Amino acid sequence: MVNHAADIASNITTHIDKLLGENAADRSIHDCLTDCAEFYADANDQLEDSYASLDSKAFFDIKNWLAAAIADVDSCEGGFKEQDASRSRKSVLASENQNLSKLCHIALEITSLLG
Fold it and tell me: Has keyword Disulfide bond (predicted)?
C-alpha cells in the first residue's frame, strides 16, 4: 500500500508540473501549485523512505514518515483554501489531495496495528 501511495504521489507531482504550465497567468493558483510541488517532493521522499523501511520492520519510522506525508498533502490543500477563501473556487488538486491523504491514513492505520 505504501508503494502505491508513493506511485500516486509521483503521478501527482507530474500533474502539478503540467498544471504549473497551464496556470501561469493565474498568479494565486501558480503560487499554490509551486508550494504544492515542494510539499509533494517531500511527500514522495517520505513515502519512498517508508516503503524502503518495510523490510526492516521499522514501524516507528514508517509511522512518522507517513504522518509527515499526510501533513504535506494537507499543507498543499490548505494553501489553496487560504488563497481562495474570498472566492468560492475549488482547489485544482482537491480530488488528488483527498485520495492520497486517505490512502496514507489507511497505510498509517495498518502500520500502527503492526507495531
Answer: yes
